[in-house]
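Task: encode each sequence below as structure tokens.

Item 1
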Amino acid sequence: MGYDPSLFVSKVDSELKCPICQGVVEKPVHGINCNHIYCSTCVRSWLRHSLTCPLDRLPLNESQLRPGPRIIVSLLKNLEIKCTNYNRGCCWIMKLCELDQHLTWCAFKAPSSEINISNSNSNNVNNSSNLVPNPDNEIRQLRNICDKRSELQELRNLVNRLTCDMENITASGEIITQQVKEISDKTDCVIRYLQYAQSQMMRIFLSREEQEQLMSNLKLDNSLVNCTVLNLSEFMTPEILMEYLRQNGMKPIKCIMGPYPFNRSRNFCVTVRLSDLDKLLDPDLWPIGAALTITNGRNKSPLITGKRSKNMSTLCLESGINE
């Protein structure tokens, strides 16, 4: 009969268990044909009823049984097992090869008289157990108390670990709260700056809207206007005149030399945007003797005469009429 697997400290591999009794193999033997491992007692009891292997049903008899392989025997000997009197209170843990020697002096083994009484009259023993205190029961109770104490200690350790983790989490939460507060303060500051910037932008946009409304009313968007400049110097060219206008903050579109009635004066047709018209109509822009009129189809505006002297000119812009 094999050993109880629950007595072993660690889980026992299935290869070391007897397929007949399902216990850990005791005195292992195997058949020469199948090499399956059995307890010596279990397989001999089996062969009294059937001369076949319990697993693969190959022919098997006692003469074909051989001792278990050395490696199996070595593995079994090194397994750690509790005393078979563990339930009675023995706490010894040893190798399997030391179990028989331990049982010879184990103080918790059942007395022989108790075994005889239990075999002869089990009913009397059961009745007497109710009257006489059983030391085994007291030992079991003590063991249960010890086990519960160990479980309680484990629970205490777990509670301590959880408490420590909770304190760490609380400290981390406080740090995160502080960081969130700092971010919130910075966010409030950014929001104030954005509100200020928004108010400034709204002022700009409103002023632009007003300007656009004014330009729309006056039709000064991107319309072009033609102007005729009269009585400029005979040395003036369209290129020089456009450069002169650019230096005075305008963006002329084109400039064409027109017919001139006098040999020493030149006339030019200049096209500009309406947004530059105010600058173009400034009398201080043109030299004395020159004149400018706005041409709109067949209609012309009154002449605007120049008031700028030679000393005020950036370029050499002179009229064709002597002052």
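Item 2
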Amino acid sequence: MNLRQLEVFYAVMKSGTVSGAAKQLHVSQPNVTRVLAHTELQLGFSLFERIKGRLIPTKEANLLLPEAEKVYQQLGQFRNLTNKIKAGEKHLTIGATPILASTMLASVIAQICQQSDYTIEVSTANQDELCDALIKNQLDMAICFGDDAPAPLVQRTLLNTEMVVLSPKGSSQPSPLSLESLLADDQTLISLDTRDPLGIQLHRVIHAIAPDHHPQITVRNYSAAAELVAQGAGYAIVDPWTAQQYDQRVQCHVLEPSIGVCVSLLHAEHYPLSIAAKWFVEQLEQSL
């Protein structure tokens, strides 16, 4: 039974007459009769008995109905999806690291939703979790740190900037600060987890200067590093957005030599950006 035969069968089951099915499907009655007869011939059994002008479903037809309803509903969902795509789907699922979601993305999303009928769902996670969600088609795109991505994903650089040194409020450290002086200082240099893109960069630079350095405190969350600095636990080197959020509670310094920060857009190679997603990226790039 092909889709056209399924449509006719389902319409007759619901209306009980050829005329009703023809009206529902916007076709002629002879067309319905012809498709129905051909379907019964292919199946090798009758689907309806003609009694007093009405078509009464046979036992076989009633057995087929539940499965036919499932397929028919899926067909309707498929048609709705194609109509949305044609009109331009205006719902986006975006993933981001927490700090980028609350800073870089927040203002752009607020402006878009105030000026359009877009609906946007934002999920926050670390980079590994974001990449996994993209591969599983759970996200349209992700905004995160780093210029690298697994093979199934496409990476596009949105912005390049530099990491910032945080020191406790009231400290007498100059700006800029050298990484060598921080490593030689008695105060703790709070480290970022090497599973994190910024943590990897920081670890490589530190290891080149002091191969035997072992951090006393390691965190994966940038805000946790900044909070530890605010509590007087030591120094931290973080992204500029985290530094900006904590600039009233800590002191910020330029780092020498600088350590670059790349902000990237990621999406699945097998799931290209939709028209709506491309438009969102344009708005985001204009805001940077």
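Check on item 2: The first strand starts at residue 48 and ends at 51. The CA atoms of residues 165 and 278 lie 35 Å apart.
End of task.
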